[in-house]
Design goal:
The protein is built from six helices and five strands; from the N terminus they run H-H-H-H-H-H-E-E-E-E-E. By secondary structure, the chain is α+β, with helices and mostly antiparallel strands.
């Protein structure tokens, strides 16, 4: 098997290197990461600016369909960009979960109007997503979750608690897994919603580690 870049891949790698050198600092020689050098607010502003630059230069949604704002490229190009980005202190972390899992779920299952509303802003770094799965009494066993959603006219009312929701305190939207039918087996009767994290009734409490 030939692991060398094809001419097209080599050109893409060179373009990625040029982009990264112009927007972020190399990891080599850095005594502290960018996240440690900046306040939380400054880091989030830097992360959003970096994601916007990626979108404007064709490095956001590399494998996503073009009709969804992506580049429509083969997976190897995403691998190449990841290899090169890993050499730099790039503030990409806040978007990893949203663009890696949440927004692809929206693309797969949401309506056209919902995709039009949400996919572009996420790709451009305007909005951040989180996923609300684990619960205090269920951990990572989503089949044991107790958070419920009950129909109220045209609405659904969600009640419950989630834990270990990475990035919840800075996220704009979240996908949440809840129980909508208690009469079915534990691994059934579940539904997924996406919610505005700034909605009334949502309280986010960060968990502070001993390390600070």
């Amino acid at each position: 098997m030939d692991f060398n870049d094809t001419p097209e891949e080599a050109a893409f790698r060179q373009r990625a290197q040029t982009f990264l050198a112009a927007h972020v600092q190399p990891r080599a020689g850095q005594t502290e990461s960018l996240q440690k050098r900046l306040s939380d607010k400054e880091y989030m502003l830097a992360a959003k600016a970096y994601q916007k630059a990626k979108a404007e230069n064709g490095f956001a949604g590399i494998t996503w369909p073009k009709e969804q704002g992506g580049q429509g490229l083969a997976p190897i190009f995403s691998v190449i960009f990841g290899q090169e980005e890993g050499k730099f202190d790039a503030p990409a972390g806040p978007f990893t979960i949203g663009l890696g899992m949440c927004v692809p779920t929206v693309i797969a299952f949401a309506t056209d109007a919902q995709k039009e509303r949400h996919v572009g802003p996420a790709l451009r770094g305007e909005e951040i997503w989180c996923q609300l799965f684990s619960e205090p009494s269920a951990g990572s066993d989503v089949a044991g979750l107790k958070t419920k959603a009950v129909r109220d006219g045209d609405d659904w009312v969600i009640n419950g608690r989630k834990v270990w929701t990475s990035g919840a305190h800075y996220s704009d939207w979240g996908i949440v897994l809840v129980r909508t039918n208690a009469d079915k087996a534990k691994h059934k009767g579940l539904s997924m919603f996406f919610i505005d994290m700034k909605s009334p009734g949502i309280e986010v409490r960060p968990i502070h580690q001993m390390s600070g």
